[in-house]
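Record 1 of the preview.
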Amino acid sequence: MSLTPADVHNVAFSKPPIGKRGYNEDEVDAFLDLVETELARLIEENNDLRQQVEQMDAQLESARSDLEGARSSATSSSASLPAPNRSAEEPRRLAPVPPPSALEQTAGGADGGDHHVQAAKVLGLAQEMADRLTGEAKAEADGMVTEARTKAEQLLSDARSKSDSMINEARTRAETMLNDARTRAETLERQAREKATGLEREAQRKHTEVMSTINAEKSSLEKKIETLRTFEREYRTRLKGFLEAQLRELSDRGSAAPSSPSSEESSRSSSSSSSSSSGQGYSFGPRAAEAG
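->
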């Protein structure tokens, strides 16, 4: 399958999968443009060389035709020369005439020799010209073919060297970009790890502070609860004692006989004094307010 500039121009490469290495599209397109231009120039130059070779072949065929014409004319000249002699000999055979003189024989031989020499010269010149044209055409064609082959090999070598250089450059650039990306990723990963460690440390510190505050408040509340429980126990005990005293007093009053007014007043005064003393010992209002 022959490669044309249109094939190079319309070629399309598939993109590599994600994560796979590939060449730069701009560099590949630029190189394909160079290859397309150079290939078009080589094809045009090859067509020119082919036309020149065809022209040389046409000239060679023309020279060969001239050579064949010269050969045929020389052959016809050499064949037509003895014919008059034979036609002249027949009347001589029919009619007895005197033989030609020596001068006539010499003149006739000289004329025939001149025709043969001239035909030989024309044939030699035609052969020489044909050989020269053939040699020149062949040498020129060989030289043009050799030059075209050398130029094509040189262009191919230059294109291959340039392609290798571009591939090496692209590979080096890709490796550099890959190393830079790897270094950047490692740096970002290290920074993220350090930031995460710092955030974890800060969260741990705040958690410790909050737990310390909560524990302190818990201890304070437990102390207050214990104080309130102690107050409750004391309050219950005092209230119980007070109620028992009141019950005893009522019981004593109910079981006692009627007494004199003086004794009743004394008992009332004693009970009021006892109740006042009891009220001084058990102040429910302030304690209840403090408990609340």
